Amino acid sequence: MDSRNMSATVGEAASRTSDATGRAAQRAHEAIDQVSSAVQNTAERVSAKSDEWMQRGDEMMQQLRSTVRERPVMAIAVAAAVGFILSRLTR
């Protein structure tokens, strides 16, 4: 093989390597974009659920406060019973 053929062969190999590297990089970018999109969608859904749970917790707290104001004796009795049960369970 003379130097011209060797140079052409090296140039062709370099071109093929460059093309393959470009395709691999393109596929990697596409995969990263898909993962990024999936993560962003999941984060948005988790955030929405978190807001929903916080609102539900606030509503339950308001309902509990209302019940305690309407029936304070019952609230104290329930609290005492729960305390008694917990003290028995932790022994």
Architecture overview:
With 91 residues, this protein is mainly alpha-helical. Helix content is 95%, strand content 0%. It has one domain (3-89). Helix 1 (3-70) packs across helix 2 (72-89).
Q: Which properties best describe this structure?
A:
mainly alpha; rod-shaped; 91 residues; 2 helices
- How far apart the termini lie comes to 90 Å
Instruction: List the uncertain runs.
Output: none
What structural class should be given to the helix and strand makeup?
mainly alpha
Number of structurally distinct domains: 1
Roughly what is the average pLDDT, rounded to an integer?
89
Short description:
By secondary structure, the protein is mostly helical. Helices cover 95% and strands 0% of the residues.
Topology:
Layout: H1 3-70, H2 72-89
Helix pairs in contact: 1-2
